[in-house]
Amino acid sequence: MAEKSREVRVKKRKQQHLQHQEQSHHFESSSYLSSRSSVSKQSFTSYTASQTSLTSQQCLKSSLETVGEEVVRLSVLPKRFQRTYLAMDTDKDVIGYVVPLFRANHDVVRGLVESQDECTVEEGIQYVAMRNLFTREAREALEVKVEKKSHSRHARESAERVELSKTLEEWSEFRKKMNPDSLTHKPEFIVKPRGQTVWEGKTVKLHCTVAGWPKPRIAWYKNNVLVDAKAHPEKYTTESNYNMHSLEIKNCDFFDTAQYHASALNVKGEASSMATLVVKRFQEGDEAGPFDPKPHGYCSEHGVTFNTTIIDKFEVAFGREGETMSLGATVIIYPTVKKYQPEIVWYRDSVPLKPSKWVHTHWSGERATLTLIHLNKEDEGMYTLRVNTKSGFDSYSAYVFVRDAEADVEGVPVAPLDVRCLDANKDYVVVTWKQPAVEGSSSILGYFIDRCEAGTHHWAQCNDVPVKYARYPVTGLEEGKSYQFRVRALNKAGVSRPSRVSETVVAMDPSDRARLRAGPLAPWTGMIKFTEEDSTAGVVPSEASDVVVTEATKSYVVLAWKPPMQRGHEGVMYYIEKCISGTDTWQRVNTGMPVKSPRFALFDLAEGNSYNFRVRCCNSAGISEPSQPTGNITVGDMMDLPSAPGVPVATRSTSTSVVLHWAGSKEVKHLAGYYIDCSVVGTGEWMPCNNKPIKQTRFVCHGLNPGANYVFRVKAVNAAGYSQCTAESEAVVVLNAVAVPGKPTSVRLVEALKDYMVITWDAPAHDGGAEIRGYFIDYRTVKGSVTGLWHELNHKAVTTNTYKAENLKENVFYQFQVRAINMAGVSKGSVPSAALECKEWTLTVPGVPVGLHAQEVRDTSLVVLWESPVFDGRTPVNGFYLDLKDTSVAGDQGWKAVHEKATKKKFMKVTGLKSGASYVFRVRAQNLAGVGKPSANLGPILAQTRPGTKEITVDVDDDGIISMIFECSEMNEGSEFVWAKNYEAMTDTSRLNIVSEKGKTRAIFNSPSLEDLGTYSCAVTNTEGISSSYTLTEEGLKRLLDLSHEHKFPVIPFKNEMSMELLEKGCVRFWCQVEKCTSACDVEYAFNNAIITEGKKYTMKFDKSSGLIEMYMDSLEVTDEGTFTFNLVDGKAKGTTSLVLIGDEFRELQKKSEFEHAEWVRKQGPHFVEYLGFTVTPECNVLLKCKIGNTKPQTEIIWSKDSIEIAEEDEEASHIEMKDGELTFNIAKWVIKQEKLSEKEKEKPRQKPAAEEIPNGPRPKISKKDAGIYEVFLRDERGQDKSVFNLTDAGYQAVLNELFKVIADSSTEIQIRSTEKGLILYSNIIHYNEDLRVGWLYKNAKIAASERVKSGVTGEQLWLQINEPTEKDKGRYTMDIFDGKDGVKREFELSGQAWEEAFEEFQRLKAAAIAERNRARVVGGLPDVVAIQEGKSLNLTGNVWGEPAPEVSWTKNDRELVSDERYKLKFEAGKFASITIAAVTTADSGKYALVVKNKYGTEAGEFTVSVYNPEEEESKKD
Q1: Mean pLDDT along residues 1359-1385
Q2: Residues 634, 626: Cα–Cα separation, whole Å
Q3: Could you give the CA distance from residue 818 to residue 797 in angstroms, rounded to a whole number?
Q4: Strand ranges across the sheet with 381-389
Q5: pLDDT single digits (tens) 837-847
Q6: Collapsing DSSP states into helix, strand and coil, what is residue 876?
Q7: Residue 461 pairs with which residues in a beta bridge?
């Protein structure tokens, strides 16, 4: 019982201990509060120390703060220091911040400490209770009472004091534990992350458990770069639960191979742990054994570390569909190991690329090239060049954009992309694709799917009605055959170009496909199968199971099921039955033929109706029972359009690119990706940024116009279609992003005294895109190999490149580093200077250089070499000056400087010397203090080339080996060749292999690269200075490498690459020409990599003398689409030229070939050389004309109008003429005939014709009556041909426009004519048509018709009449005659002399008209002759007019009459003048006149009066 009770007590104590730990843990977790927004909202919950002395001694080492999604390390650094570490992605864009360990912002630390001081004390209940308990006991124990004690009592109290001291110690320990400063401790990894090795494509998870108080924050780093899981949720996922933390990496690839750090941080400190992740690639084929041939790049060397450098990198590239693009970079591997080559791998979007007909890769040993043949949008993406060596790998990436090809029809959508085949079975496959970025002028209505049997070129359309979903089940395939598919998009404007064809898919059972992929089961003997009689033969199959609907849209429903378990060895086929919900009637769907695949697509279902489906299995034995029905399935779309993404946020990146971020679509299934559009502000034209959808929510838009203002929008896409476009982003100007500047360089000492030092430095090479505002200088002490901490020298940035560091200690060594600052922040510290001693300099300038000598003496040049002085002076030597003097000049005044700026080299080539002259040389050294004294003179040296001197030559042998050769014919005993690089001894012998033999030396480059650039010299010892040099530049190295490659791999040069031309009869000629070849040159002709030979279809010719290679084809057929290649072999040299004829280019060429053949057939009989057209003659006659050829007298020529033949007796037949094979039909010829007829009638005596005989006026040259469709037929026994001209609507208008042009061109310059009414401006034309539009302008403004200003046409004269002109009518007049296009203008300047003469003539004519109108005249009333009988009375009255009223008089025989009794003359009302003669006699006969006169003129109305006597008349008759 005692033992049981003891066990119970122990269990209770354990339970209490566990409860106490849980409460403490709860207390720890509840006392930690954090915020992700800013430092001010964050506080690590802490407790105020009971003793201020302990609080004052605390030192806050480091902390961690989360700002948005960034992680910032904190440390006690000054407030002005704000370090920013930018991490760059493969696009060279900023993606995050690299955070080094133990770094902090002083501002943050200070705020954190203040927040701790201001924090209210939060104490747990247990803590308060236990603290009070121990405090009370301690107080009671410390109370001292003075009283007398016995010895026994004293002994007892002594024992109690010992017990009390123990209690006090326990209480003190508890107080230390309960003190907040004692409870907190820095993070500690209980379980560290473990390194893993996984296969590519797998998902891996790194775990760790971290303890610490306050609760530490965890951050994950990949190769010291922060892993931002929020920015890349598709790649990374981080979790933190109950001190257990994990990082999940999805879909691992090569780039995920790295060192991953887990960093834990709280106010007490920081801890980190590392794990290595290795991602392995799958390797097809058997694993190589130890005796198998070694793979490419195998190196048996151990202990060699290869350094990889990638130069001449490819940049972001832009291509267009159908073009060919090459990407390349130069790879330098150091050190060079013979016969070792790295592994070159190309990736697109992290997927390795394999060579194919669309992808070609090449590795020359130094340059890696990727060629993309016939670009498609599928080729767009991030391309990565990865160089794998035994020491690791290096990579470089850049994005390639592929723009759409120009559409054949404006407004049609662009081609879809990424066509794939899924779930292939015996007679069924699901075709999927991605929608294009551009829908065209209207939304896409649907897609057509085409299929083609592999090996043929016959494409068959799979669907009659366009489908809207980007996936479609294709049925009716033949088992065992291979198929390819393509997709076309449709909108209101038409059908797009087809997409790139899919990969070939075989219609077969998936299990058979898996069995074929698995290969033989036994690697040595192949697959062995045993067959025997099957007891299940002739058995009806069992039911199918698990019938489900895998896809459902408005257009179709796809069923899938599992094959029956019992089916024998026969193949099983299936019948599908459907039943409308609510009924019991099952209807078989595929009544004609059972399907072979356990998949079936049902079309023609009523949208919105519900159906049940079931499946029956069948074989030769019978039909099985039906499967379980699927349940009610409603026909409709199972997938909705994606929701719109978040509004994109654009930030500056480079001068031609912008970085976009946006929030992904929240409601989307099976997201295909996002499309981004951009638009220049104010244009309203949207252009696609990517033609291949991306799934990331970050994208770099390249190819933008520098300085332009852009807005962006994003739309999501899935199989159902496009989402709504987002709202436009805020406008952003395309400029370089601002970053922190680079590090300053070359920190050095300028001057030093006992207590201060002056240092200087060079500005950073890159200012980060913003002006550098100043510099901060840090220093630290150096004692031997021990360095102190960095301290600030200046709290305010200095703007100069020098700084005086004061208050230093004498004879103490210091190091300095400098940081630059701009608006983006403070740069990293420069490389620390050398340890500089603070002591006063004694020697300032350097000593004299020594060891001067000359070599390579020539007529006009030589090389002077020297060594540094023994004494450098106050500072190290930083340059040298070389002086020369002609020995013919006496004194020191003849010294001249060879160069202006100091050179750091210890040699100098002097040029421009006079041949035969002697020179002396000297050198002076320079440091920061100044220039030292000159060296001893060198010389005199005679500038003269020694006879027989040779120079170093560069040679490339037939094997491509590059070497430098130097020969010397004056070798003495003991003479040797000494090679040097940059006139210094060559220490790295791995770069060059020196071979010397007798008087010739050869320096062979082992692996020429940029490291070999420099000046190479060779001197011969024990001679009189025989030497030479050769400078290898980057350009020269490139030229030599090209020449080496040509020698290693000689290429037959082509004068003309392969070309193609169409010949007569549609024959096609392929040809090329080589620059030169030998008689042994051979040509191999290939089509799609298959050798072709001469036969019925192909004819080959090769003229080796001219190098012309030809191949003829009678015609182009559908099967001729592909690549034609000529492979040439001429000894070691090879050459290849190809011509790709595919896609639209091939189809267009085939059409031209067929057309040429048809034209040749047509021209075998009568045919049209020029088809029926029209022309307008200068006389404005409209002629329909055509040119015919190969006719005979028997050839029938038939004209028709509106399908009615023009017979010979018709009037129109007379208009048709033929001359020299040219047929003409003069539409207006009868008008000319009528004019000729009228001319003949004028020659006849004029007779008054009857009214019905008067002909109508001439009709226009062309009118609506002539409109119609004119046709000409040629026909004889050899064949026929036809030509049509549509003289209606557009054709009729075209003829009128040409007629208007002839009329307009015939118009004369504007002339002026004056009349009594005003001025007339006129121009004559050859013909006028009533449809001709003529406009008059005054000072470029249209003239409105009025009573004063009128325009019109009279006959063939166009005129503008200005009545009563005034000064305001002066100016420029323009006549605009419409000629069908722009119009013909005639101008007249009515001013100056023209105006004065015309206006003066107008006034004269106007005055004459007034005078004519108002002059006195006899209007009427008087006869010409008056015969009157003698004795009668004569009374005549004449009407007169005049203004003013005229004076009237009468005359007889030119003698004025006076009114008297015989002659009574009257003038009444100013209008009527009368004469009366009573009882006339024969004496009154004579010539009379009524004379009127006013100021405007005089007129006489004459008449004759004849008086006769009747009796006398009768007597005369008798």
Answers
A1: 87
A2: 21
A3: 11
A4: 317-320, 392-403, 381-389, 343-348, 351-352
A5: 888 766 677 76
A6: coil
A7: 450
Cα→Cα distances 1125→822, 1089, 1109, 1130, 1135, Å:
60, 8, 12, 16, 10
End-to-end CA distance of the chain: 207
Amino acid type, 361 = T
**Six token digits for residue 1294:** 């075209």
Q: Would you state the structure tokens that stand for residue 1497, as one six-digit string? A: 């003129």
For 747-761, write each residue's pLDDT tens digit: 888 667 778 887 888
- Determine the pLDDT at residue 1250: 40
Contacts of 623 (CB under 8 A, 6+ apart): 540, 575, 616, 617
Q: Is the distance from CB of 678 to CB of 712 less than 8 angstroms?
A: yes
- How far, in Å, CA of 625 to CA of 566, rounded? 12
Distance set, CA 136 to CA 121, 174, 1113, 1132 (Å): 21, 14, 114, 105
Contacts of 1435 (CB under 8 A, 6+ apart): 1474, 1475, 1476, 1477
Q: What are phi and psi of 91, to 5 degrees?
A: -90, 10
- Name the nearest CA neighbour of 1359 among 1343, 1339, 1371, 1370: 1343
Give 723's DSSP letter.
-
Give CA–CA dist 375/319, Å, rounded. 7
* 213 CB-near residues (< 8 Å, 6+ apart): 28, 183, 184, 185, 266, 268
In single-letter form, the type of residue at position 1163 comes to: K
- Is there a cis peptide before residue 648, judged by omega within 30 degrees of 0? no
Question: How many Å apart are CA 867 and CA 1102, to the nearest integer?
Answer: 67
**895, pLDDT greater than 60:** yes
pLDDT, tens digit (0-9, with 9 covering 90-100), for 1024-1062: 778 888 888 888 888 888 888 877 778 888 888 989 888
The first and second tokens of residue 854, run together, are 């000359």
Residues facing 1028 on adjacent strands? 1018
649 touches 662 (CB < 8 A): yes
**Structure tokens of 740?**
């922190």
Q: With the C-alpha atoms ordered 784, 785, 786, 791, is the resulting torsion angle positive or negative?
A: positive
Cβ proximity of 607 and 524 under 8 Å: no
Closest CA to 1068 of 1126, 1109, 1110, 1115: 1115
Q: Which of 1262, 1282, 1265, 1414 is nearest to 1331 (CA)?
A: 1262
Q: For the whole model, what pTM was predicted?
A: 0.39
**1327 with 1231: CB under 8 angstroms?**
no
Tell me the C-alpha distance between 592 and 537, whole Å.
Answer: 25
Its sign, for the CA torsion 424, 430, 434, 438, is positive
The model's pLDDT over 902-961, given as tens digits with 9 standing for 90+, comes to: 888 888 888 888 888 888 899 888 888 788 878 878 888 888 888 878 888 888 887 788
Q: For 1088-1166, list the strands marked E by DSSP.
A: 1090-1091, 1098-1103, 1108-1113, 1122-1130, 1133-1141
Q: Which of 542, 428, 435 is nearest to 477 (CA)?
A: 428
CB 1001 within 8 A of CB 995: yes
- Residue 277, pLDDT > 80, answer yes
Contacts 24+ apart (CB under 8 A), 582-586: 582/610, 586/614, 586/626
Q: How far apart are CA 820 and CA 773, in angstroms?
A: 8
Residue whose tokens read 């961690």: 64
1167 phi/psi in degrees, rounded to 5: -150, 170
Nearest to 413 by CA among 388, 382, 441: 441
pLDDT at position 204? 93
Contacts of 1360 (CB under 8 A, 6+ apart): 1320, 1321, 1322, 1336, 1343, 1349, 1350, 1351, 1373, 1375
> Tokens 């008056």 label which residue?
1426
- Which token pair is 284? 């097809």
Q: Which among 1265, 1303, 1356, 1292 has a CA at the least distance from the CA of 1177?
A: 1303
The closest alpha carbon to 726, from 669, 664, 667, 682, belongs to: 664
Q: Which class for 1041: exposed (0-12), middle (13-18), buried (19 or more C-beta within 10 A)?
A: buried
- For residue 727, what are its two tokens? 């709202």
Q: Which residue has the higher pLDDT, 398 or 869?
A: 398
